[in-house]
Automatic annotation (TrEMBL):
It is found in: Nucleus, Nucleolus. One of its GO terms (molecular function) is enzyme binding. InterPro entries: AROS. Residues 18-49, 98-127 are annotated as: Disordered. Transmembrane segments: none annotated. Belongs to the AROS family. This is Active regulator of SIRT1. Its main location: nucleus. Keywords: Nucleus. The keyword DNA damage does not apply. Residues 106-118 have a biased composition (Basic and acidic residues). GO terms for cellular component: nucleolus. It comes from the Eukaryota. The lineage of its organism: Eukaryota, Metazoa, Chordata, Craniata, Vertebrata.
Amino acid sequence: MSVSLLRRGLELLERPGRAKVPPGLRRDRAGPRAVGAARRRKRAPEPGWNKATVKGRVVKSAIEEYHKRKPVNHLRENLQYMLKGKLVADKAITEQVLTQNRGRKSKDQPPEKTEKKQPKGTVFTEEDFRKFEREYFGVP
């Protein structure tokens, strides 16, 4: 958004009783000298030590820095903490917690376990089949 569009928008939002300033008295930074003024303005130097000098600087060891930032494996301590308390909840309570935390959508529901049907034994014996064969096909 350009500055002119922004000014026009602000003029539209201006209160109606407010007087407009004539263009000659307006304090804009639009002059040629104002462009680089912000860049040229420097912060005042802070009192303290100069960073360009080496005096008073402590040399850090790269190995110490590496060991300081090296990730630590907390597995053994965590396992000891977890195994310290031997409290085991009832299976009914754990199932209840799991069903409460499960979503209501069908994709969140576990598949229902269907009982496997046991193959029923046949009522007929081998002799019955042979007898049927003889009667039906005429095989002796």
